[in-house]
Amino acid sequence: MAKKVTMQQIADYLGVSKYVVSKSLSGKEGVNPETREKVFKTAAKLGYFSQKGQKIDDETMNVNVDKVDTATLKKRVVLVLMPNIRFQNKESQYWGRILDGISESLESMGLGMVVLTENNVETLDTVLNPKGIVGVISIGVVSTAILLEVHRFNIPIVMVDYEEPLIPSDMVFNNSFDSSFQLTSHLIGLGHTRIEYIGNISYSRSFYDRWLGYRSALENNSLVVPKNDIDYEEEEILTPEKIKKWFENKTEQTMPTALVCSNDNVAKQIITVLQQCGVNIPGDISVTGFDNMDFSYDMSPTITTVDFQKKGLGKRAVEMLMRRVAHKDDPYEKILLTGSIILRESTIAINPIENRGGK
């Protein structure tokens, strides 16, 4: 039998005091956020959170929805975690719709919802009353420290459009890989052979899956996968300056005839800057996006994109959470929801012979 992991072992591993570890794990103030994050990750790595001593009692959390009466459930809420950063907030046309789907489903069940958008463990500690929480749904990229804090309390959690390798949980994603594969294959069918992917693949799992689908489609057609030569920073943000620099560094031989963008926000940025540089979209370069945001069909040209059921993600997350609460020992699930390609004005066919000539 493995020995119990202690706070002192975590402290020794990190070279900090046991007092710092204790304050970090209990969510108390007075610890540097960076240090707290390291403590949580080390605790997870060493198996501290998987110990029985760190779990709250079964009566508190193991509620069987199939058997519990409605009145009991109505006294409890679902905690929804989401960041509050550019593009990823409650007002977002993408993330906000997911939140709407969660809200509608919970309301139909008579369950309440608490939304936490500040990514710090101190705030979570003030709201986290395990006896009053049915479970947690995280939307998008949520702090590892917060997710580990939830896991420490043994609260059921479902992650939407994100996964944290340190934490076993149910997850629901849009099927980005297949959709990107189909979208890129469509461009190839239009005669495009110089196709680039634009987007920070390290930002999120969905961005990475979209790149994998794009790459797979190129490789299946024996086409070269160009080097991703844009200097990305955090999030999905591309500044006009970076787009212009990328464009100016291209030659006739390396200029793509089509771009697969990680989402509609990136596609909009690309189209806007390239048009300012005198590029005709789609005459010179075809551009595609993802997510079918409202502005994608109001632009000129309208954006060829992939439509995902945003509310559907939220509703499915609630279904998965209720299943987990009712059947806590069932295998974890990773659900993929299918998207559909919407063809609009930003993509056209080109002469495949001229394109392969690399003029």
UniProtKB/TrEMBL annotation:
Bilayer-spanning residue ranges: none
Highest taxon in the source lineage: Bacteria
SUPFAM superfamilies found in the cross-reference section: lambda repressor-like DNA-binding domains (SSF47413), Periplasmic binding protein-like I (SSF53822)
Matching CDD domains: HTH_LacI (cd01392)
Domain HTH lacI-type: 5-48
Keywords associated with the record: DNA-binding, Repressor, Transcription, Transcription regulation
Protein name listed in UniProt: LacI family transcriptional regulator
